[in-house]
Amino acid sequence: MSVGIGGSTIEKQLAAITPWAAIAAPIDASERADRLEKARRLTRDAGAAALLIGAGDSLRYFTGIAWGASERLVALLLPVDGRPVVVAPAFERDTLAADLKIDADVRLWEEDQSPAVLVADALRQAGGDTLAVDPAMPFVFAERIRAAAPSLSLVHAAPIVDGCRMIKSPAELALLAQAKQMTLEVQRRAAQVLAPGIRASQVIRFIDQAHRAIGAPAGSYFCAVQFGRSTSVPHGLPQDDVLAEDDLVLIDTGCRVDGYHSDITRTYAFGRVDADQRAAWDLEHEAQAAAFAAVEPGRPCEDIDAAARVVLERAGLGPDYRLPGLPHRTGHGIGLSIHEAAYLVRGDRTPLAPGMCFSNEPMIVFPGRFGIRLEDHFHVTDDGAAWFTQPSPAIDRPFAAS
Prior knowledge:
Layout: H1 10-16, H2 29-45, E1 50-54, H3 57-63, E2 75-79, E3 85-89, H4 93-99, E4 105-109, H5 115-126, E5 130-133, H6 139-148, E6 153-156, H7 158-165, H8 170-192, H9 200-214, E7 222-227, E8 247-254, E9 256-257, E10 260-261, E11 264-270, H10 275-293, H11 301-314, E12 331-333, E13 340-344, E14 357-360, E15 364-366, E16 370-372, E17 376-380, E18 385-387
Parallel strand pairs: 1-5, 3-4, 5-6
Antiparallel strand pairs: 1-2, 2-3, 7-8, 8-11, 9-10, 12-13, 14-17, 15-16, 17-18
């Protein structure tokens, strides 16, 4: 019988959760100033006069403004010399004042005015005609700015944005570590509420409540709960699975701490395990370990994906993305975005460097039968890698002893 699976209730587990005690410090003003200076240097190196960042995770990274993108332009214009300019709707004045964490020249626009003209005017005042544009900014905004300044040249800002955000500071690593450790504890408690007949939707609600109780105010950022054959579909099916004896269980979930993400997957047995499932789980565990062991500064990201695939192909799976085998990349960068550069996938030759953070999840899929995904995260160190959370020990003992 599996250890740590079942035997409790949703009510008991929620009552036992206490708020997380080891709270990581938020990003401070000094670190935000360093980010802006690095972005200025990279913008200058790119031959641009200024960097334009739209609403979303990168705007939060540089300014503290945690707003999602909408049809209204909200942006940071960062000249290589001079004060940052923040452009936003006038009716958001008070919310902006509460969220803005940097000193900036705030330029507000009314609903019948063009924010693109404000950006173009600010860029002219900065004395440049080349603008590096946030890769996540909607095309329509870039085109409106180009129309407002016909002589303007636009260049891709991905090297600038990724050059800043890929390398995490000690403060960022601490926030990521807290989020991931909180989610692992929620995963451990979710396993204990399982019982025959429970629906995936009930487990999803519990995980959201547990994330809130442990210290993530917004609850789960996402949650996938899959039982039995549904585990063979990497992102699940549009159905509400019902747990039966001897099913495999796959739970993938995460939360945010001060904007920084967790994303942890566990696959384990609810009851008996057949020989094929155990062998596949052990192979997944081996592939995950091989990817981790391959990490060293200077190696291209694609090498880590290759290390996991060698293990799987040696066992007769694949090759490449063929099934049964690994249908997707081995891992993704993570930070303020749940998926961000760089990526552990063939073709991404970004050199690994200390401070980079990645998922490690070389999922194995047997179509129509079952799938195994173990997902933990690591950060690159000076001489290899360090886990944020310890990998699962066994298919019938999914959580290490605390």
